[in-house]
Amino acid sequence: MKYLLFALLLMPVAASADQDADFLAAREAFRVGDEARLEKIAERMKNSPFEPYVTYYQLHLQLDARNRAPIKEFLSRPDDTPVIDQLRGEWLKQLARKQQWDEFTAEYPRLLESDDEMVCYALQARRINNENLVLQEVRSLWFNGKGQPDSCVTLFEAALAAGVISEQDVWQRVHLALEANNIALAKQLSVRLSAPRRLPAGTLESASIHPERYLQKVKLAKANEGQRLVALFALLRLAKQTPQLAYRQWGRLADFFDKDEQHYFYGWLAYEAARNLDERALIWFRAAGDIQLNDAQLAWRTRAALRAQNWHEVWASIASMSPRQQHEGAWRYWKARAWKTLGREEDAQELFTELSREYNFYGQLAAEELGSSPAAGMMSVSYQPTSAEIDTMLAQPAMQRTLALYQMGLRTEAAKEWSWVVRKLDDKQLLVASEIASRNEMYDRSIHAADRTMRLHDFNLRYPAPYRDTLQGRIRENNLEEAWVYGLMRQESRFVTQAKSDAGAAGLMQIMPATARWVAKRLGMRDYRKALISQLETNLKLGTYYMKNVLSSLDNNPVLASAAYNAGPARARQWRAEKPLEGAIYVESIPFDETRDYVKKVLSNTVYYAKLFDQSTLSLKQRLGTIAGKSSED
Asked: Which pTM was predicted?
């Protein structure tokens, strides 16, 4: 830790272990609102890198004070720490709630991190001088199925009163609310609709919770638009459970709906069918006619076409997307593949060439389509930071704060400070920061900085391989490919030994407690207890055994095994097609967003690690291979 020690030497004498203790004490005093104790600690930390935090704590507790000079002085500082902008946001909201718009307008342009509540407060401030223009902007915020902050509601009321937001707009937002299963919002909006469109009271809950039961009892012979919409809502809820059940109910009820409503239903039925990997999805998408599909529906229409190997439909679906969605790596790659299959070789080559410059899953696949290695040249480091550059960055209070926060175990605060530090850095500075983080074993932050470079790259920093000595025995013991193990760990934990997910997965290999107990029992670890799950050697022992277990149970296929490690072996099997399927298409059509992204990154990481370790020349496409069709066991 020589660089951390060097950073600490740059601080005043008081800034050492005592400084850490003072900072933690100030943090606790702030939590309980002890202003007197904060005042005493602040005196001792005047020259500390943590002084901005202590000052923030004090000012946050005094936002209502009549003397605003200290707040304005703090906000006038250079923004070298996120707590300055954090206080700015809190103070702006305070000003807005008190409708002190002159002060709000003066300070708001300096705000760097905003949110929906703040955006609407800013519109309120502008509305004073430009009512019509602001209400038009407000309308663009209206079309959202989620609830909005109170600061937006005030503006919506004005836009509704002025007729800028029409009843048709309200009707459209009711649809969005029901699609998001936001029953509370749908009810609030319903009262603004004319009688034929008003949702029948007391029916939404039963339509949501027991859709099949509701549909069996509903009478639609003389139903108005509102009643039919609730029935459609029930059908969509049922389709989310099982598309086949929804389609069966639709057979009884379809004639009660007009053409637009029928198309609307088929669009959502097809979407849910595609996510369930139901081969009828494309048929139902066609039944939706020319209805405008949203981004999620178009993505799954494309995935359904991929699984059906219908390349014209793949192209047509992508062509229907907005320019923004089409620019996503996935759709650029599959559009190029469709063009190549359909004989538009030059267009495909152009897209592949553009995409191949990106260091990610689709960039690798595009490079391979062009016959080149996506990892070519990655071993040569294009820039090596000098000692002087490292020392200069270590002298910055922001970097000292980040290192100290990390060492105190305050990883959330450290990550925020780090992101603030690196947000304006150029490629050279990013590699300096990455090198400092790596030498201090902050591998997640090192990867974060190295991943951001645009022209200068160091793949040893992007793809670090710590703990190799500890891991070698486990890899040999389980006959695993080292590059795959590291590819998975990089995605799971970014090599943070104490990482813990919201679901409870822990350690470098993010093992769930139940999985850890099962593996420990299989290995005969009589002394295993939950507290050991994050311990380095135990975590690696349990994780590598489980990797081998899922790999062996899934045809020794790393694509299926990676999916299984994240979502479970049963799901990995269920996602197979009836016939053999290209591995890239299998991955693209994984129904869970998290797992789909996870598998792509694990396999992409594996290719880079294999190159760094000089262990394999297998391409990404070779690794993805072909996924065998379902067996009777599946």
From this structure: 0.93
